[in-house]
Structures are given as C-alpha cells and as structure tokens.
Amino acid sequence: MEIIVVCTVLAMLLSVLAVRLTSMEGRNFDTVVEQTGDLMMMFALRSEHARQPVGLLIDEDRNSLRLLRREPSGRAENMDLWQPDPTVREVRLPDFMSTRDIEVFIDGDIADLTEWPLSAMPGEDRPVIELVLHHEDRSVSLNLSPTSMSPRRIEEGRDAVPVREPEDLDTTGRWQEEW
C-alpha cells in the first residue's frame, strides 16, 4: 500500500514538473517574439530619424537577430562598414530555436538576411517587412508596414486585432466633431 502511495505522489510531481518545463518553452518563445517586435520598432525609428542607414541581420553564428548601422570607414578601400548598433540589444534565440525558425518577407517576397542585412536609408520609403517566427505548432507573424513605427502581431489560431483603416476627416465631414 505504501509503495502505491509513493508511486502516485511521484507521478503527480513528475506531471507537474513536465507541464512547468513545457510551458517555460512557450514563455521563452513569447519573450523572443516580444523582443523581436521591439527590435523591429527600433529599426523603424532609426530608419526614420537616424543619420546613418540601418539594417536587420540574422546572425547564424550567434543564433540571433541584430540591428546594424552603417558607419563611415577611414579606409579608402572600404567606404562603409556595417556595425552592430551598440544601443540596441540583439535578440538571442533560446536553445530550442534556430535561425531557420525565422522567415523574412520583404514586400511579400521571401528574403535571406543571413548574408546581407535588410537596409533602410533615413527618410526614404521602407518596404513592408514581415518576420514569421515558428516554434513547434505555433507561428507568430510580425508585420511592419512602411508607415508604422511598431509591428503588428498576428498569431495563427488567435483573434488578431483588426487593422484600423485611415479616415480623412475632411471628406467625411467629421473634422468638427469633439475628440
């Protein structure tokens, strides 16, 4: 009888531990998605307001996503160099993810950011950028439109926040309404 009780208690403890460990991966994935969204927001801000061109790069050696900026070089043979932005922390992927779990789409076309960064010149139009992060059965898409400063998060199987359509208050006659 005592052995049955001990086995039951151990089984319950192991089931609680297993649930806790598997949900930790889910929380870590959510953290990576949030950090990637923050990195995309910094990319948008820097592409609008910085003096140097900025870029996004997937670094396979470091298993990370990085924000770069192009710095002028003093050497004549190499006019510009891409350097990690020292004020923005890279997004390090956890051990259960790799850089192959990130898909990048620029204006709807798939892109490879492992060889050369996606760059944007300050003040110029930015393309539509979509990063899709995958983990097990979850896929989260982060969409950064050319005019927005933060990405829109869309997760399959969950209700997405509807996109607000721009409205010209002059043409609709609502310009005199109280805010």
Description of the molecule:
There is one protein chain. It is built from two helices and ten strands, in the order H-E-E-E-E-E-E-E-E-E-E-H. It is flat and about 80 Å long. The strands form two sheets. Strands 1, 2, 3, 4 and 7 form a five-stranded antiparallel sheet that branches. It has a five-stranded antiparallel sheet with strand order 6-5-8-9-10, with helices on one face. The protein has 179 residues and is α+β, with helices and mostly antiparallel strands. The chain has one domain: minor pseudopilin epsh fold. The mean pLDDT is 84.
Structure summarized in a few sentences:
The protein has 179 residues and is of the alpha+beta class.
Our measurement of the CA-to-CA distance between the termini, rounded to an integer number of angstroms, reads 72 Å
User: Which ranges are low-confidence, i.e. pLDDT below 50, for 5 or more consecutive residues?
Assistant: none
Number of discrete domains: 1
Order of helices and strands: HEEEEEEEEEEH
**Sheet having the most strands:** 5 strands, antiparallel
Radius of gyration: 22 Å
Summarize model confidence as the mean pLDDT. Answer: 84
Helix content: 25-40%
What's the CATH class label?
Alpha Beta
Percent strand: 25-35%
Shape: flat
Q: Please name the fourth-level CATH homologous superfamily.
A: minor pseudopilin epsh domain
Please count the beta strands (DSSP E, at least 2 residues each). Answer: 10
**Any idea what the CATH architecture is?**
3-Layer(bab) Sandwich
According to CATH, what is the topology? minor pseudopilin epsh fold
Structural class: alpha+beta
